[in-house]
Amino acid sequence: MEYRRLGRSGLKVSEISLGSWLTYGGYVAAEQAIKTIHKAYDLGINFFDTANVYMHGEAEKIVGRAIQAFPRESYVLATKVFWPMGDGPNDRGLSRKHIIEQANASLKRLGVDYVDIYYCHRYDPETPLEETLRALDDLVRQGKVLYIGVSEWTAEQITEAVHLADKKLLDRIIVNQPQYSMLVRHIEKEIIPVCEKHGIGQVVWSPLAQGVLTGKYKKGAKPPEGSRAASDSKFIQSLLTDENLDKVEKLKGIADELGLSLAQLALAWILRQQNVASALVGASRPEQIEENAKASGVKLDDEVLAKIENILES
């Protein structure tokens, strides 16, 4: 496993990280989830991602159980705040009240004294940005959070936050968590250039496009039983177009030539971006994370990258 600095911070994270969205606390049994996290750790993955809203706190509890086996200084732990955690008017968003209460609740569920990264899971237009940044800065000063990040913020929102933090001498954002894959590339135009300018690294989610870039889905065929598409998730259905499946078939040919799985090719392609510190994958079985981890350190030459680009632009 290879490691990269997260933005311009001194924090080093594994090129492949393990997330818990839609898996832990949900359709994956707790013991299987814990085995997968332990396998990831054995493979050199030091970066584990969760969120308070994932299965309404259950994912944090399972991740917390799993990481009790590791020395605290040996891993990087991230969680998030924004989405509703109750029915009350203050049970959501990025107000000082919600941030502080949810940070403390997450620490309790995870069984740790601090998280390495605390993300604003979305932008909150209803809360003054300074209130949000001051609450996060207080958590950093208290030692409950080491670094702050954002997820799915626009380039303008990130820029405003950086400038406000500098003006008010508040702790700065060091990481952004956007969706990014061969099939979803919107961050290349504005987000990456803005983040490079301000020393913010990317930790990208859904790098395998919800499993479409594993090659398990075939044009004209029913989704495999037990797969995400079989449950008719709207999120994955938007990616399962004939056009995308044609691209996947061609990409599989390149992966075969290189002796890689399609997933490894897709992850190595993500990691060609120096601004990407880590590709965040989900895994329900230890074997899945073992295969994905092999993408770390794979370098794709210019000729291969050009072939991929031709396929993706076709």
Distance between the termini: 33 Å
Number of helices: 11
Order of helices and strands: EEEHEHEHEHEHEHEHHHEHH
Strand sequence of the main sheet, in spatial order?
3-10-9-8-7-6-5-4
Number of strands: 10
Question: What gyration radius follows from the Cα positions, in whole Å?
Answer: 19 Å
Task: Summarize the structure in words.
Helix content is 39%, strand content 15%. The protein starts with a strand and ends with a helix. The chain is built from eleven helices and ten strands. The strands form two sheets. Strands 3-10-9-8-7-6-5-4 form an eight-stranded parallel sheet, covered by helices on one side. The protein is globular. With 314 residues, the chain is an alpha/beta fold. The mean pLDDT is 94.
